[in-house]
Protein: BMP family ABC transporter substrate-binding protein
Organism: Streptomyces niveus
Amino acid sequence: MRRITRIATVGVASAALALTATACGNTSSSDAASDSKEKSVAIAYDIGGRGDQSFNDAAYAGLAKAEKDLKVKGNDAEPSDGESDADKVQRLTELARAGNNPVIGVGFAYAPAIKKVAPKFPKTTFGIIDDSSVTGENIANMVFNEEQGSYLAGVAAAKATKSKTVGFIGGVETPLIKKFEAGYAQGVEDTDPSVKVLSQYLTQPPNFDGFSKPDLGKAAAQGQLDKKADVIYAAAGLAGSGSIEAVSAAGKWNIGVDSDQYMQAGLAQYKDSILTSVTKDIADAVFNLIKSVEDGKPQNGEIRYGLDKDGVGLTDSNPAYVKLTEVTAAVDKAKQEIVDGKITVKTAP
C-alpha cells in the first residue's frame, strides 16, 4: 500500500492556484487518469489519521481487505494539522487525478471538498462516510445508525454499573456525535431510570481538537470518575484513548467506539477494562464501495447501515462481558426490539 504523507497546509495563494488549475482542466483530461489500466483506490483520513485505534483505522481495515481480496492497489492520505477545506480539495483532486477510483473521504468534514471535486471527475466514484448532505451521481454516502448501537451501550452500562452513575464523553459537539449521546442516554433511561448519565463534550466547532487530543479525553474521564461514574462511553476518536487510559487506571469499565477496541493492538494494555464496544461496520462499507466499482456497478446515493444489517452493533470480545449474562440478555432483547420496530431510538438528546 502506498502511504501519502500529510499534505502541508497551503497558503491562500497556493490554494487558489490549485483550484484554478483544477477548474481549467476539461473533463477529458480530468478523467484521463481514471481510464488508466492500473486499478487503484484511495481513502483520505479524518482528524487524527491512521493509528487512532478507532474511526480511521476501521476505514483502513476496509482498504486493506480490498487490497487482499480484490487485488487492487491501495493509497491512503493523511490530514494535516489545522487544515482548511481548500486542503481537502487539493488532497481529493490529487487522488482523483492519480487515477484512484473510488476516492473515499473518511468523515463528514470532507463534504464541502467532495461537493467541489466530484463534478470535475464524473467517471470517478467519490465516497463519504457519515454524511448525506452532499449528493451527486458519482457520490456514495455511507451512513450509520449510530444511535442504535449506542442504545445497546446504554443498556449494557445501566446493567453493569454498581454506582448508578455512568458517563458519556463526546469529542466535538456536532449533530453526528449527539446521535451517540442520544442513543446511549435513552438506553440507560429505558433500562434503569435510577441511573444517572453524566455527559460532556471536549470541544465545540470549529475547534475539532476533541477528536485528536488524548489529554482532553483523559481529563474529562477523570472528572466523571471523580463524580462516581463507573462505566464511561467515549465517542471521541483519538481523544477517546485518553479516556480509556483514565478509566482503566481507576479499575472501572470502558465502552469503546467505532472499532472493537478490545482487539486494538494500541490499546492492549487497557483491554481488560473495555467491557464492550459500539461498532460501525466502516470496514465493510469501504470494501463494499470499492467492490461495487470493481464490479462495474458503483454504489451511489445513501447507503445506510443499521442494526438490521449488522451495520452497527455491540461487541462480545471481552470474556468478562460474556460472563455478565444479565447484561448480555438485556442487550440481546433490546437489539431485537429495535430491529422489530418496537423501540425507536432518538437521534438527538
